[in-house]
Amino acid sequence: MCRIYAAPPDLTEALMGLAKETKAKGWWHAYGDVIPENFDVYLGLEEAAQQLAWYEPELVPGLLQTASYARAIITADNPEVEPGEIDRRVQLRIERQALIRRPTSPLALRVALNESILSRPVGGREVMSAQLGALAEAAELPNVRLRVVPFSVGLHHGLMTGPFVLLRFPPNGDGQDSEPPTVYQDGFTGALFLDKPHEVERFGDAFEYIWAAAASEATSTKLIRACAKELTGR
């Protein structure tokens, strides 16, 4: 096609490179046998994203979970699954976390959590204390910002939206988004991908309201560490 349209050599080379990339499978395809239906679509979007705005009311987000915390959730959600498959699902979740720790262009992550998450001992008190410690450490990464929405706030937008992730993608050479911003909502029986401008704007505004209602990053980290200490008494 480049020859037919007499594309210049530099553009031809770039397009050929893109063509090769589209045929390459993502790292997560090695876990194809344990990936829930349609979640591979989300994994591809997450891998390509530049920024994530994530609101969670009940559980620590997957990108910030420890292996033990993840195992407790995955096991509870899949009681009939063999231990070997549980192991692979846990490993898949942990490998996703390389996105926020990669040395080059790490994913910019903003997370807003309800305070209730800090008080729920998922996996037991020791597991939850370790999870909170890991959460506080992740909050110190330069590309991660984390805030907790305290009970004292009362009613806030997150109580209406439920959990969601807003993904934004890096710009192309012309300054346009390489992919349209997308909202992902994971439900009990399926997931939603929303990319219509008015949908994205509504969720974007909701996240900003939630973020503004939450405690500061410093206060949130102190609260997380205090809850971790309270769980184990040390």
Give an overview of the whole structure.
This protein has 234 residues and is α/β, with parallel strands linked by helices. It has a domain at 45-65 and 97-232: 2-Layer Sandwich (Endonuclease, Chain A). The protein contains 9 helices and 6 strands; from the N terminus they run H-H-E-H-H-E-H-H-E-H-E-E-E-H-H. It has helices spanning 9-23, 39-48, 67-77, 83-96, 116-119, 125-138, 158-161, 197-213, 217-232, and strands at residues 51-56, 108-114, 144-149, 164-168, 182-186, 191-194. A 6-stranded mixed beta sheet has the order 3-2-1-4-5-6, with helices on both faces. A hairpin with a 4-residue loop joins strand 5 (182-186) and strand 6 (191-194). It is globular, with a radius of gyration of 20 Å. The model has no long low-confidence stretch (mean pLDDT 89).
